[in-house]
Design a protein that fits this description.
The complex is a heterodimer. By secondary structure, chain A is mostly beta strands. Chain A has one helix and 19 strands. Chain A has a single domain (9-221), classed as Immunoglobulin-like. A five-stranded mixed β-sheet of chain A has the order 7-13-12-9-10, with no helix packed on it. Chain A is globular, with a radius of gyration of 23 Å. Chain B has a 16-stranded antiparallel β-barrel with strand order 21-24-25-26-27-28-29-30-31-32-33-34-35-38-39-40. In chain B, α1 (2-75) runs antiparallel to α8 (266-316), α8 (266-316) packs parallel to α9 (331-359) and α13 (447-472) packs across α15. The longest helix of chain B has 74 residues, at 2-75. The chains are: A mainly beta, B alpha+beta.
């Protein structure tokens, strides 16, 4: 009898504790992080073909914007796969967009929009793929299962390049032409934000996000 | 070692000589010095003593004078009474009278009463006011001590006085004192100083009060400070050395006054200084002499010794024909003579051995020299070869004997070279026949194989000889060879005085019979012999034949050829490939984000606006090749079948704006087509490219890769899936840019002489020739074009031509067109025409033509098809050569087909086939292919570690061309890393 009573009481207590532990439900105490990323970029590098058959004298390597994301996984905020699969198109002998952030497990499609072949590939440790050559209108897909940074190139055109950042959470943004970015729905707390660009040293900063507030994160990359 | 001799021996002599001379000098100096010191001391002592004596004498004289005066003054009754009563006037008068009487005008007289009160004081005859303190003191002392007489020296005014104070008493009662002071004038001192030759000074109360002129002026300091003891001190003053000493004037107490003497040391030292100077001079001379003599002596000794040492070194290296000069008649000369005797003996011995080697083979000579000079033999299994020149007698009918022997020796030289090359022993020459033995006196396992190889070599050598003879218009010489293996009796046969190492037996006779039966150019052997040689031998059975002296028929075969032996470098190459793979895993594990390039690490220059950029980069390739034979395409092994060919390329890219690009490439490798034994570093590319914005027009000039064909664009880039270029760009033909054939017939024999031509022959198009030139190119939409003038022929080895001024007037013309029919399919066509001959090393051009009149014309079409993971490339080529002295220009057709598939990300495989078809050239006997057709099949696997690094391994097999060039295969691997 006493044992049963004791057991029931324990059960009640446990249930109470479980129920009262606050879960990080959506919409409960989120903030916004926004800012401007200033890139101290050197002028774009040029490259040229060394053997006969190269078209132009030289071409500048494609420019890539900065990416802001939260380092590591955030508890209770597993990245959701986006509704429409993200695409990175080959258009006008360039990657569009030049930087893409996707959650772990997302599939990215690489449609060819040019009237000639590209050969998209990456040998990064995060994801290794070679999509071969396919004509305009066709597309190939790659699923990114591991978090990290993937540098994407074209075998045919040496000056094309892009970046795919595979994030462990959904709090990320790609800076626009002016360097501005805005990340919404960040739960209250302190996080390590990483501002990254392939040609410059990354900046990591601890940012405290308050519920309902806007936290400013400005960074300069050199 | 020779340097050490010189060092130690000469050094020893020097050391001894210098040491001795030095020691002597040091001793001499020490002696002179000590003697000098002694002399100085003596002189000083002597002078001091003399001065002292004289002054003492003077003192005595003065004392006596004073005593007389004192006596008179002190003992007169009236004087006494006057003093007692204090009668000053009387006393004064008396004293004055006495002073005048004695003629002492300068004397000081002082009389005191019994209490010491002065009574009368006179200076000369004049009374003095007051009494000099010193005199007073003396008087008091006399009264106090009760002494009868006290002496002292007093300075009164500027004069030194010698004072004598006496007690005046009467009847034991002191009445008073009398002091008499006589001056010591400078003149007096001066005179004494002159006499003795010293400078004197009387020092009272630390002042030189009386003395010689020099003493008072220049030496007073030194003299005053001379102290009181009688020790001589050496001082420097007034420009010379002095010995200074002082003696107390009164007794031993220097406080009362001193007499200081300065003895001039100049004259004393002068002779010793002269001696010292002489010693120094003499010593220096002696040292110099000893150095010179020492040098001469040591050289005289070491030079012959060195010569001997050098000569022994040469003897050790095997040079016996030398003599050492024996010029001196001493022990060294004897040694040199003995050495010469020894070398003469060695030389003689060597000459005898050489003669022996000429007469018998080296192996036999070794045996003989070891003392096996016994008659007798043993049973051995050997292979015997007989070679006989067919129809020699008829050939040399009517020739002079010199020419006969000359021709015979020419043939025999080649034949015996063939035997030596295979390790056999020429037993004997019998007229126009040669007998060789394989397997004796040194046993060999594969003597049958060696013998047959030698036989084949012999036939080949004769064939070559015949070609030359034919060119000279002489008739060919035929050779018949017979080979047999069997058991023979081998040993020294003959008599004790003259013996011969040879073999006997049925096997030998059979070989001889076979030789007789062989036609010109034929090699006959027994079946057993061929079987023993192994399966590399290809022979045609001729069936059984009967030979005289043999009861049974013998199975005879005609030996045709020998297959090349696969080398065992294969294993090594596989090992190296595996090693490269293993090495490659390292960077792969690390790379992840990519191995950094120099540019990423910041090795570049970018101007502020970015319009001027300078970038540094490079690529390192590590290639290995394993050959089955020595010739694979352009890359040549080293006989062991393994070639390691690293290659380092350094690029400097210069960008100016959008329109200007320049490249400088430096390359270090083992040759443009890697060759064993070569290492090369050179400027590979240096060009400037100007392009418009759309790329429809670019101008390029400088040193760059020739734009012919479809291979240049992808060679040494990640796009090329094979290590070696396609067959068309990689295989040497018989065309040699430095040799002009004499006739079509001669030219058509070249294909059977690969040793002479293949190694230096040219492919239809060189892998990628980098040459100076200028190019106009561009792309418009789907169309691409290029037009260039290059300083080379398509087949020329890139560095074969240095910058030749004249060549600039005869450039090659290269033209190319490309069209992208669709994204999948592109077609191209290429044309190249230009002079291809270099400075001729052999042969002559016809008188009406020059080097630049012979052109090579190359036309190619290519197609590329890509889709998904597959790429197909095909190229077909027609190559035509203008060759001197040949009417119909030789042509070859070539083709290549390549299929590449990407198996996974960065992992690909490819296969390729190539064909070279040589077209026939018309000859008197009918059309003949001018070179043997060849096919090549290749497969390759590649793995991309990273964007900048990768691994490639390919295997290629080429079919055999002729009996002399069997099939070849190659395993190649490359690890490349672009930084």
């Amino acid at each position: 009898m006493r044992r049963a009573l004791f057991g029931a009481a324990t059960l009640l207590v446990v249930a109470g504790v479980v129920m009262t532990v606050p879960t990080r439900a959506e919409g409960q105490g989120t903030g916004v992080v926004e800012g401007v990323v200033t890139l101290h970029l050197q002028p774009p590098r040029r490259s040229a073909g060394r053997y006969p058959g190269s078209a132009t004298a030289s071409r500048a390597v494609q420019a890539v914007p900065a990416v802001v994301f939260v380092k590591g996984a955030v508890a209770g905020a597993r990245p959701r796969l986006p509704a429409t699969p993200p695409t990175m198109a080959q258009q006008d002998t360039g990657f569009v967009p030049a930087a893409l952030v996707v959650p772990v497990g997302a599939t990215v499609s690489f449609p060819n929009g040019d009237p000639f072949f590209h050969n998209v590939f990456s040998y990064s440790a995060t994801a290794r793929f070679d999509l071969g050559r396919y004509p305009r209108g066709e597309t190939k897909e790659v699923t990114f299962d591991k978090p990290g940074i993937v540098k994407v190139y074209c075998e045919v055109h040496e000056f094309m390049r892009a970046v795919v950042v595979v994030a462990e959470n959904q709090f990320h943004a790609v800076a626009d032409a002016g360097g501005r970015f805005r990340i919404q729905g960040v739960p209250e707390g302190t996080y390590t934000f990483v501002v990254w660009h392939p040609d410059l040293d990354p900046v990591e900063r601890q940012v405290r996000v308050t519920a309902g507030g806007t936290t400013r994160l400005d960074a300069e990359l050199r | 070692m020779i340097g050490r001799i010189r060092q130690s021996f000469a050094l020893k002599i020097f050391a001894w000589l210098l040491g001795t001379v030095g020691a002597l000098l040091v001793v001499a100096f020490a002696v002179v010095r000590s003697v000098t010191e002694t002399q100085v001391a003596e002189a000083s002592e002597r002078a001091a003593q003399n001065a002292s004596f004289l002054f003492t004498q003077l003192e005595e004289i003065r004392r006596q004078e004073v005593a007389r005066v004192a006596g008179l003054l002190g003992e007169g009754r009236r004087t006494l009474a006057a003093l007692d009563e204090g009668d000053v006037a009387y006393l004064a008068g008396e004293v004055a009278y006495q002073i005048d009487f004695f003629g002492l005008p300068d004397i000081l007289v002082a009389l005191t009463d019994a209490r010491g009160e002065p009574v009368v004081t006179l200076h000369g005859q004049e009374p003095m006011d007051g009494v000099p303190i010193g005199l007073q003191k003396l008087a008091e002392r006399v009264l106090a001590d009760g002494a009868l007489e006290v002496r002292g020296y007093e300075v009164v005014g500027d004069t030194l006085y010698s004072v004598r104070t006496t007690l005046i008493e009467e009847g034991g009662r002191a009445i008073g004192t009398l002091s008499l002071a006589l001056p010591i004038p400078d003149a007096e001192v001066e005179r004494i100083g002159e006499l003795v030759g010293v400078e004197v000074c009387f020092v009272v109360e630390e002042r030189c009060v009386a003395g010689t002129a020099a003493a008072r002026e220049g030496l007073s300091e030194e003299l005053v400070s001379a102290g009181g003891s009688d020790e001589a001190r050496r001082v420097e003053a007034l420009g010379s050395a002095w010995s200074v000493r002082a003696q107390p004037l009164i007794g031993d107490d220097p406080a009362g006054g001193r007499r200081a003497i300065a003895v001039p040391l100049g004259p004393v030292l002068a002779p010793f200084q002269r001696i010292t100077r002489a010693l120094i001079l003499g010593g220096a001379l002696a040292l110099l002499l000893s150095v010179v003599v020492g040098g001469a002596l040591s050289r005289g000794l070491t030079r012959p010794v060195r010569a001997l040492v050098e000569a022994t070194g040469r003897v050790a290296r095997g040079e016996y024909d030398l003599e050492v000069a024996a010029t001196t008649r001493d022990e060294l000369g004897t040694l040199a003579a003995a050495f010469n005797d020894m070398t003469r003996g060695l030389l003689l011995k060597e000459r005898m051995q050489a003669v022996l080697n000429k007469v018998v083979s080296r192996d036999v000579a070794e045996e003989l020299l070891q003392g096996n000079l016994e008659l007798g033999g043993e049973n051995r299994r050997v292979t015997v070869l007989f070679a006989d020149i067919r129809g020699f007698s008829s050939l040399t009918d009517g020739m002079e004997p010199q020419r006969v022997i000359g021709l015979l020796n020419e043939c025999m030289q080649r034949l015996s070279d063939a035997v030596d090359a295979e390790g056999g022993v020429v037993d004997k020459y019998v007229g126009d026949e040669l007998m060789a033995v394989f397997g004796a006196p040194v046993a060999q396992e594969d003597d049958a194989l060696r013998a047959l190889s030698a036989a084949l070599r012999m036939q080949e050598a004769m064939a070559q000889l015949n070609v030359d003879r034919q060119a000279r218009g002489e008739p060919p010489i035929g050779l018949g060879v017979g080979v047999n293996s069997g058991v023979v009796v081998a040993g020294n046969m003959g008599s004790n005085e003259r013996l011969n190492y040879t073999v006997l037996g049925d096997a030998v006779n059979l070989a001889a019979r076979l030789c007789s039966g062989a036609a010109a150019g034929e090699i006959l052997a027994t079946r057993g012999c061929v079987v023993a040689a192994g399966d590399r031998v290809t022979a045609r059975t001729l069936g059984g034949r009967a030979f005289k002296g043999f009861s049974d028929e013998v199975e005879v075969v005609s030996v045709e050829r020998l297959d090349q032996q696969p080398t065992n470098g294969r294993g090594a190459s596989v090992g190296v490939t595996v090693l490269l793979l293993a090495m490659a895993c390292g960077p792969r594990a690390v790379s992840g984000q990519g191995l950094p390039t120099l540019r990423e690490l910041g090795v570049e220059y970018v101007s502020r606006s970015g319009s001027v950029q300078l970038a540094q980069s490079g690529q390192l390739d590590l290639e290995t090749f394993s050959f089955s034979a020595d010739r694979f395409g352009l890359a040549v092994g080293n006989g062991e079948g393994l070639l390691l060919a690293p290659r380092l390329r350094l690029f400097t890219d210069v960008f100016v704006g959008d329109h200007v690009y320049a490249l400088v490439e430096l390359r270090g490798d083992r040759g443009d087509a890697p060759r064993a034994g070569e290492w090369d570093a050179r400027l590979e590319q240096a060009f400037v490219r100007l392009g418009n914005a759309t790329g429809s027009l670019t101008l390029q000039a400088g040193l760059f890769a020739s734009p012919f064909g479809s291979y240049a664009q992808r060679h040494l880039t990640p796009v090329d899936p094979f290590v070696r270029p396609p067959l068309i760009y990689d295989d040497r033909t018989m065309m040699c840019a430095g040799i002009a054939p004499g006739s079509t017939a001669g030219f058509l024999t070249w294909r059977d002489r690969p040793d002479e031509f293949r190694d230096i022959g040219a492919p239809p198009a060189w892998g990628v020739p980098y040459q100076w030139g200028a190019m106009v190119a561009g792309t418009r939409g789907r169309l691409g074009y290029r037009l260039a003038a290059m300083n080379s022929a398509p087949s020329s080895e890139p560095m074969a031509w240095a910058w030749e001024g004249e060549r600039l007037r005869h450039p090659s013309l290269v033209a190319g067109l490309g069209i992208a029919l669709s994204p999948e399919l592109s077609l191209g066509a290429s044309y190249n025409r230009g002079p291809w001959l270099e400075e001729l090393k052999r042969g002559k051009l016809p008188s009406d033509k020059g080097r630049w009149d012979y052109l090579q014309t190359l036309v190619s079409v290519d197609a590329t098809w890509v889709r998904g993971p597959v790429m197909v490339r095909a190229e077909a080529v027609r190559d035509q050569w203008d060759v001197p002295n040949i009417v119909q220009a030789p042509v070859e057709l070539g083709g290549s087909l390549e299929v590449q598939a990407d198996l996974a990300a960065g992992f690909f495989a490819a296969v390729r086939g190539g064909l070279l078809d040589f077209r026939p050239v018309d000859d008197t006997a009918g059309p003949v292919d001018w070179d043997y057709d060849v096919e090549r099949y290749e497969a390759s696997l590649g793995y991309r570690l990273d964007r900048n690094a990768g691994l490639l391994a390919s295997w290629a097999h080429k079919t055999g061309r002729s009996t002399l060039e069997g099939s070849e295969s190659l395993l190649a691997a490359r690890l490349w890393w672009a930084f």
